[in-house]
Backbone:
């Protein structure tokens, strides 16, 4: 999957292809990252990319002209959707990540300062996306979150020990608890069923834990998802 990122801080976004799952995916050619810095498109000697907001008020706004040129150059190389990362966007969840993972590429537009000139959104943005109800200093960390979440879903990105099928949210639920050796840690034992070797019982226990945790912590997730009959039995027992 091809990621083209329009950002004033390419060195920050670059780290995503340097480590971990995304780093390995880049090495294997499963993902490719190219960055477009609006500052390279600034026409004046100071390479200005921001200006004061019309109507007054604090802060600065990213200028439209250099952003438009950067996005349009990126579009020449990437036919994918332009996603603008902003707190005003559609909240990101695993369902949206899965939908976007079907694309061959995606252009990620990162704002800084108070935001970007709204006309850029009108002209070039296909989708606005938020990673949560809090404000970051810019869209770069959000873009990296999206790149990471998308990469995990690409065939071959995870080793068989890290299957995405077992991730939290894959089936719309929070994840079950996990344990590793030693069997007793500071007096606390690993649940017996996990040592039983009975795979059907282990799967049942994990599902019950996931359902219970989701019901206690995030009941709205269960409302958004139909429970199967067997899940209802597990939750009720
Ligand atoms: N840019 C600043 N805050 C953001 C957020 N919460 N989500 C996505 N992009 C952002």
Residues:
């Amino acid at each position: 999957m091809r990621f083209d990122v329009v950002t004033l801080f390419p060195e920050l976004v670059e780290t995503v292809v340097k480590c971990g799952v995304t780093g390995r995916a880049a090495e294997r050619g499963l993902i490719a990252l190219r960055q477009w810095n609006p500052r390279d498109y600034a026409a004046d000697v100071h390479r200005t990319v921001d200006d004061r907001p019309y109507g007054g008020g604090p802060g600065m706004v990213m200028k439209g002209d250099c952003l438009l040129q950067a996005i349009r150059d990126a579009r020449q190389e990437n036919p994918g959707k332009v996603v603008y990362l902003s707190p005003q966007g559609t909240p990101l969840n695993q369902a949206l990540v899965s939908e976007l993972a079907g694309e061959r590429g995606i252009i990620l537009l990162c704002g800084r300062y108070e935001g970007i000139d709204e006309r850029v959104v009108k002209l070039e943005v296909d989708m606005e996306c938020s990673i949560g109800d809090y404000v970051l200093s810019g869209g770069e960390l959000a873009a990296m979150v999206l790149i990471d979440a998308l990469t995990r879903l690409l065939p071959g990105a995870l080793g068989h020990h890290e299957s995405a099928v077992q991730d939290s949210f894959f089936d719309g639920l929070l994840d079950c608890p996990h344990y590793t050796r030693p069997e007793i840690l500071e007096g606390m034992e690993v649940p017996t069923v996990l040592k039983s070797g009975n795979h059907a019982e282990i799967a049942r226990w994990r599902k019950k834990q996931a359902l219970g945790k989701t019901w206690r912590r995030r009941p709205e997730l269960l409302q958004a998802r139909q429970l199967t009959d067997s899940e209802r039995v597990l939750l009720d027992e």
In short: The mean pLDDT is 95. Residues 2-152 form a domain with the Alpha/beta knot fold (CATH 3.40.1280.10). Residues 24 and 157 are 8 Å apart (CA to CA). The longest strand covers residues 81-91.
